[in-house]
Design goal:
Protein Transport Mog1p, Chain A; 4 helices; eight-stranded antiparallel sheet; 12 strands; alpha+beta
Amino acid sequence: MNFKLAFLVLPIVFLGASMSDAKKSVSTVLDNKKSISVKRSQGICYSEKAGVSFKCKNSWNLTVMDGANLFNSKEMPHLTVSVSTMVVDFTVLEELDHGFLHSTGLYSDNFQREHVMCAGRPALKIKAYAKDNPHMRYVGLFFLKNKELTSILFSVYPEKKYWDQYQFTIKEMIDSLNFIGSNK
């Protein structure tokens, strides 16, 4: 998977009423090139590969594309959440600098970087517009552990119409973020 695609889409597994239910559905969720709707009562989404969970709406759509997944809510069709992981040569998060992020071709020239703490870990937070679409707004979080970079990217399109509506949902999802499993 190339770098640009890795930061836009990801493998996600959803938690329903219990962890065992989610584990049973892993093979279904990861089935290549299908869209799957999953309903849950607890409103928790889980990315097995990234080892993260976060609060989400009860109805989501998962599209699997070439082994990577894109995740969005049917209730909020203009908000997309992507989680991905990739092995990098970095040893510290600061190596994910402005020049490197600019070279991905994802972000417009005026994006902002900010070092924050999230889910008890240092993170790099990106606020940006898409380079190829000035109407798409991104909020991204990057975490580094043992040379594995985890990216959680929230995108809103069209930004002018929906940002005010979705910015608090994004904050709530970020505030609920947890690292689980071997990624604790």
